[in-house]
Amino acid sequence: MVVDKANQTAWFVLSKAELKRFNHQKGDTEGLVNYGLAIEGIRAAAIFVEHEDKVKISLRSKDSVPVNLIAKEYFSGGGHTNAAGGIWESDMDSLIEKWKSIYPAFMATHA
What we know:
Blueprint: E1 2-4, E2 9-14, H1 16-21, H2 34-37, E3 44-50, E4 55-61, H3 67-75, E5 78-80, E6 83-88, H4 92-109
Parallel strand pairs: 2-3
Antiparallel strand pairs: 1-2, 3-4, 4-6, 5-6
């Protein structure tokens, strides 16, 4: 888990290799994203789960942080204000670079 208190965000990455190593079954990662929100001062959390040809993204937030907007604009997704998701149809490294380039400004806009 990466905790960025300055931007009130926490995020997890689960690679294909990690999922295989721990014998991942469908549903095992459900709710994991919420652990980030349990950290004091964190208002938005994300989990990136790598699959064969894409990365599944789950976003959660507190208060009025509209994670559905970031899901829709950048990750072909949607949802509602405090729970959203999307897909990244490329590799994990490019997703992480994209995430790092967008979430600080997004969080600053919705502080």
